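Handout, page 2. Input:
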Amino acid sequence: MNKIFSYIILFLFFYNITLSSQLKCNFQEVYQDGQIQNGILFLGSTQIRYQYNNENLFTLIYHNNGILYSVSNQNSSELVQINHNKEIFKTILDIKDNNNISETLHLDGMKVDIEKNKIDKFVKRLAIKSKDLNVSIFFIDCIEKEIDKKLFYVNPFYEYSENDF
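Output:
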């Protein structure tokens, strides 16, 4: 499951998401079986926070040093470093300003369709398909706003609430 989130982060950087260096979006993942997961995305200039609203899930935090962390939403002391795809993130940081990306990509057996939002120049939807996974991720109500860097801390982990932003 963490592999999908690595790809999400990969595409967000790779696709020159916005003209601003910081962005907040809600997201909704819709799976083929009808399951839906909602959350919030914070994109800093070199960091990402991808947080599920469900207390039984987790928050992913990516740092520009190439490390991806998963923090349990129930217990923030449950911090796990995700060790795969580190080189991908380093590469993405190097090429994040590249706007010449195809709207369909094939990576590691996955087909990814990228749908742009023409109004605010952000990715509207990612459709990820493989033999093991079929999910659409919608990015909703994206706004450009300065993001407090404590949202990207993992130790100590900062608990986000709607009143913070």
